[in-house]
């Protein structure tokens, strides 16, 4: 059975088994399953084994892998509403298979594949209305945000590459911005003391006047404003900061403006949500996770920038073993990562096979499901909703048992209910703490989720909520 | 043709086409192709198209993707000797297909898949001789190194998460350490001034006495030693720093010791190279890129750590929408990234299907090819080699045209030759600048490379080198 790490004479069997498995898996995802299976004793034993020194029949190994996957929480399933995640676009999974086989590295020029990456990032700019930008694929929203922040620091303090953080700097985010932004600031050696949490309005959007006031105060105190991070779709409620007003402030004070649109930015490509993103084209950089609301398998994030030279100034170097030809910097000179898989292929093939129109439709459908969820909950006495309709596709809900009025008790009830829902397994939700209270937080970012799944969502919440 | 982003009634056709394509691709990789094709006009036109609004027959789209891939430089091909990269392990590509379909997120507990990640990192620790460690998969060596450095900073200056870099710190690397380590130090806001390039010996290994001297000088000057990064397989020559001696120094001065074994560490699992890694088990953390010398498709890096709690202290937080149950931190609390694909599956399935023994054999074979290359070049008057045999599988070579003796002229000749080899396309090499001189730098990290490819390597170098 030793084939020198090739599948050898088992190639045909393994590919046939893969073909059959994936067909079944995709058919299984067409409808939700009624519950999540427990970990079997056999799988538990399998996952406790020590390193196997000898191989086994490859199709048997494949079968074991599938058992593990089936006993895991997969975001591809239609009732996984817990996080803003991807949903394993079928043609995207095929693309990952191809990309993995060729295993191209986009660190230096890899010929056609390098051009494909550039093209796909342009397509994404066209899709969201951020034209004439260059983009680079990264391993995730955190790395995209870090890339943008590093460029912002370099613009604010050019000597920082050599000298480090030489004085106090500040980064401005809304008080509900994603934690990864704070983590990025920590990583950059600025400390959380550099984070300015700007007040939000009743729709959870950054208040521009508060932003401007803080910037003036910092400048007066000798603190250098480094970057304004506007959220275009917060993780908690899907709020979109007022981008045009923030851009005006960024220009007034000459501060790098980054839009963290990891989750929300693709909605800018739809008729129903486009207006919410007015002004996004004025940003210096935008993060979009195609592995969130463009449905392709993770990881597939993109950072789009206006000033490509700013990235080269931040990351460029002359490595002794990297060929540098011509004027154009290698990707390795403008990004954080060295080994760069062909992440763009899954989005490229998705746009090719389905057309941008199907993506717009699927995003619009998610927004409609969120609106429907909000509408149903808002007329149901067993539920409390936020005062405003969802801007995108996240719908915080509280289940209110009959007669319960104490906010603290309601929070505890919803936290316990969320755990019960997770154990039940018909739908999967995560909790959200908003203004100190615990909410349930269904997120619609899966192209497989249907109206019938919303029915089940309400059934499960009421069923388990009223039992407690 | 609108299937709501599913393949719908084209599923069977797409899977059959994928099956046929991958079979041909793998058969194509069994032997090298004799030249690299030029970009065709059709592909160039394809890659200049704007965003397609409507979809197309899916198998046609797939065909276009394969055309692009075939006109790209793929590391999977047997004569791609340019960088220490992966080679698209066949069963690993299958695993990526499955993982992409399920699209599990390992940020929080995903049940069986989460256990599989833990198990695979333990296997890797067993394989390289770094036992009783916990590991986490990351998107690449740079992110793994950054993760370790962030933990090292937190240990050296615990208040840095809040306060940032409050005073001067120093990071110690050999003068030939991978540039990603310097980039990581820059990113962390320390500036390159914090990097201490420690002298190397004639085998390009860090000199422990020079390290200790520098640490003492820094401490005397009020600079806080933050981390020693030992290279276990440098990118330029494959040198392995003396790990046991460095560990003794790290312990003496209570400094975090990180081993950057991104490329080389898997060789610690072989009989022929194990002794070179003596002392690796004493490190605080180790980076291993399974997408380098464990052959799986990129990206699949692992950072192994002794003190898991140090990661939690560095990255842990209480995010409002993440369920935290029990004592065990979620992966999102101990790593940089939030969205975490199931990268472990390809390595798990590789070990399952082939057994650790086949990996050991393939690594050993790469080392033998490197030794053979060194031997042949050292007895051939047209070549110059380094004074010592390769420690791992990188073999710097200079082609010396008859009668050429001026080092500067020889460097220029080899730089031009490297470009000519790249254009020729029979083999793919990258240059290396070592001690100011330009060398050719064949790297053997591909399980598909055979002795016959070494024959071609010499043919091509002599053929093109003597023409110039």
Automatic annotation (TrEMBL), chains A, B:
Write out the GO cellular component annotations: cytoplasm
KW Chloroplast (keyword) present:
no
Task: Write the Enzyme Commission number(s) for this entry.
Answer: 4.1.1.86
Q: Taxonomically, which superkingdom?
A: Bacteria
Known Gene3D superfamilies for this protein? 3.90.1150.170, Type I PLP-dependent aspartate aminotransferase-like (Major domain)
Which cofactor does this sequence's record say it needs? pyridoxal 5'-phosphate
User: What biological-process GO terms show up in the record?
Assistant: carboxylic acid metabolic process
Pfam families, per the entry: Pyridoxal_deC
In-chain residues carrying the UniProt-annotated modification N6-(pyridoxal phosphate)lysine: 292
| Enzyme class name | lyase
**The entry's keywords:** Decarboxylase, Lyase, Pyridoxal phosphate
Does the keyword field hold Transferase?
no
Q: Which SUPFAM superfamilies match?
A: PLP-dependent transferases
Q: Name one GO molecular function term.
A: aromatic-L-amino-acid decarboxylase activity
Protein family per UniProt: Belongs to the group II decarboxylase family.
Q: What is this protein called?
A: L-2,4-diaminobutyrate decarboxylase
Native species of this protein? Aurantimicrobium photophilum
């Amino acid at each position: 059975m030793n084939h020198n790490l090739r599948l050898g004479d088992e190639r045909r069997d393994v590919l046939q088994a893969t073909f059959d498995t994936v067909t079944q898996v995709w058919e299984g995802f067409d409808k939700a399953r009624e519950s999540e299976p427990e970990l079997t004793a056999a799988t538990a034993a399998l996952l406790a084994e020590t390193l196997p020194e000898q191989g086994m029949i490859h199709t048997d190994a494949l079968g074991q892998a599938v058992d593990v996957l089936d006993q895991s929480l997969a975001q591809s399933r239609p009732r996984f509403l817990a996080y803003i995640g991807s949903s394993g676009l079928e043609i995207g999974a095929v693309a990952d298979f191809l990309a993995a086989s060729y295993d191209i590295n986009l660190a230096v020029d890899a010929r056609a594949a390098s051009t494909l990456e550039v093209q796909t990032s342009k397509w994404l700019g066209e899709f969201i209305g951020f034209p004439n930008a260059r983009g680079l694929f990264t391993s995730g929203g955190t790395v995209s945000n870090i890339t943008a922040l590093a460029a912002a620091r370099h613009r604010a303090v050019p000597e920082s590459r050599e000298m480090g953080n030489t004085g106090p700097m500040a980064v401005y985010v809304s008080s509900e911005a994603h934690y990864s932004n704070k983590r990025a600031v920590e990583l950059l050696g600025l400390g959380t003391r550099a984070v300015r949490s700007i007040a939000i309005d009743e729709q959870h959007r950054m208040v521009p006047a508060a932003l401007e006031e803080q910037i003036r105060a910092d400048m007066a105190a000798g603190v250098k404003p480094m970057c304004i991070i506007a959220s275009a779709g917060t993780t908690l409620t899907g709020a979109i900061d007022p981008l045009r007003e923030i851009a005006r402030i960024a220009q007034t004070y000459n501060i790098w403006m980054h839009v963290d649109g990891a989750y929300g930015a693709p909605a800018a490509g739809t008729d129903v949500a486009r207006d919410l993103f007015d002004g996004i084209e004025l940003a210096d950089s935008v993060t979009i996770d195609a592995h969130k609301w463009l449905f392709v398998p993770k990881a597939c994030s993109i950072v789009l920038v206006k000033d490509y030279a700013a990235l080269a100034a931040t990351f460029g170097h002359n490595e002794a073993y990297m060929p540098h030809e011509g004027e154009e910097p290698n990707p390795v000179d403008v990004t954080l990562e060295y080994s760069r898989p062909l992440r763009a292929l899954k989005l490229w093939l998705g746009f090719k096979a389905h057309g941008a129109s199907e993506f717009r439709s699927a995003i619009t459908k998610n927004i409609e499901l969120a609106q429907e969820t909000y509408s149903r909950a808002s007329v149901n006495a067993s539920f409390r909703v936020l005062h405003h309709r969802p801007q995108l596709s996240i719908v915080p809900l509280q289940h209110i048992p009959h007669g319960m009025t104490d906010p603290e008790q309601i929070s505890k009830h919803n936290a316990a209910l969320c755990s019960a829902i997770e154990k039940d397994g018909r739908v999967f939700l995560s909790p959200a703490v908003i203004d100190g209270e615990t909410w349930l937080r269904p997120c619609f970012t899966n192209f497989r989720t249907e109206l019938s799944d919303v029915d089940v969502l309400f059934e499960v919440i009421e069923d388990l909520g009223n039992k407690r």
